[in-house]
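Late entry, evening session. Most of the bench is empty. Finally got around to the prediction I had been postponing all week. Sequence below, unchanged from the version circulated by S.P.
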Amino acid sequence: MSKKEDLAKKLGYQRKNFWQTATETEKKGAMKFAEGYKDFISTAKTVRETVRYTEKVLKKNQFTPIESKKSSKKYYQAYREKNVIAAVIGKKPVSEGINIVSPHIDSPRVDLKQNPLYQDQPTQLGMMRTHYYGGIKKYQWMSTPLALHGVLVKKNGEIVNVSIGENDDDPIFMMPDLLPHLAAEQYRKKIGDAIDASQMNLIFNSIPYPDEKMKESVKLNALVILNEKYGITETDFLSAELELVPAGKARDSGIDRSLLVGYGHDDRVCAYTSLQALLKANPDNLNRTSLIFFSDKEEIGSEGNTGAKSAQFIDFISELLKKNGEKYDSYTVRKTLMKSQILSADVNAAINPNFPQVHEKENAVHIGFGVSITKYTGVRGKGGSNDAHPEFTSRLIHLLEKEKVNWQMGALGKVDQGGGGTIAKFLAAYGADVIDCGTGVIGMHAPYELISKADLYSTFRAFEVFFKKG
């Protein structure tokens, strides 16, 4: 290395390509880690499914429900099957601050309306009306194979879990787009207006009930099938939570299998990696208490009693202090959070090589170069952003550097190109140090998103190091 190159290495900031700099052991570790993640992302496609998966794993690893009278160093709480908090108590008092990693577990999707089923005239097809959830490009969801997931609650209170379209012998569903031969008017519209929400109706069935006198015999036949399969009536739809998600499993991508295509990387990639990192935390050699908080409804503003703004988060901290024999009044809870460090674990937009113009390459996330650290999100003049303090940003960067975790600093596109937000600003309202940290994604919010196995593994390693040494 020349003197000039040596000087540039010492003084400059350079991203490190994981596949060029990692050891063979690390590369194999990244590939192996991705196999568990593929299983998770293929089976836990909704918030409730993610909570059930997480609770099962926590129980298997001897986490104790926070409501239990049993004494432990590892606690969790699953709330309304919509969010999960889990913690490992370290050697220091909880009140001296907690290391928190907080992803959200909801993803953009298409929901069924509360009274969805109707028979279209004159096609005589059974249809389902929908309402999209979160920021999607509506046209991407048309003519895409979809599976139906969710929950129905019958009159007697029995809960029925629904999953149709994931098994090879299951039917799948589709909202058909307009054929190009007859799309002259559609082509003249702006891309955002090409599909109206009222056109996002699902074809549900086509065979009529065998009674020629019935006016809506196709709709009736659908109700008969659902009643025979689930024991439900049309009224049960009114309280149901039914979601349409892309059908099928996550798959390796790229001839070298270095990439992963799947639904819901945003943001269940950060949920899986943070869960695996917490499982590695040993209370016997853990300095500070470590905690994961999986929240719901981030894609629609973190509202409701299961979002990041809900009281459950504060309540769990209070219970954790109590379990550890410490004061748990509002003052102590508040001071505990003000001494805490939080990674708002959310994905960032990696440079899409087909659309590089929306990024500034020096300040963008690059696929395969490690976990992304995002000092601020927001729109235009950082509106709606947390904008992390330099002291915390520097500590995190140098921790990852010291522990040889591939990392990169990345903003969410060019200034004024667009933007977006995370739950960071809601968590920062508690007075904690907060920064966004997560995996780079190409094609975010599409039915199928793309990530690198290198970045997946680097995200896990970042969370693991943060818990152990942050």
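Two things to note before I forget:
The two ends are 34 Å apart (CA to CA).
The longest strand covers residues 109-119.
Will write this up properly tomorrow.
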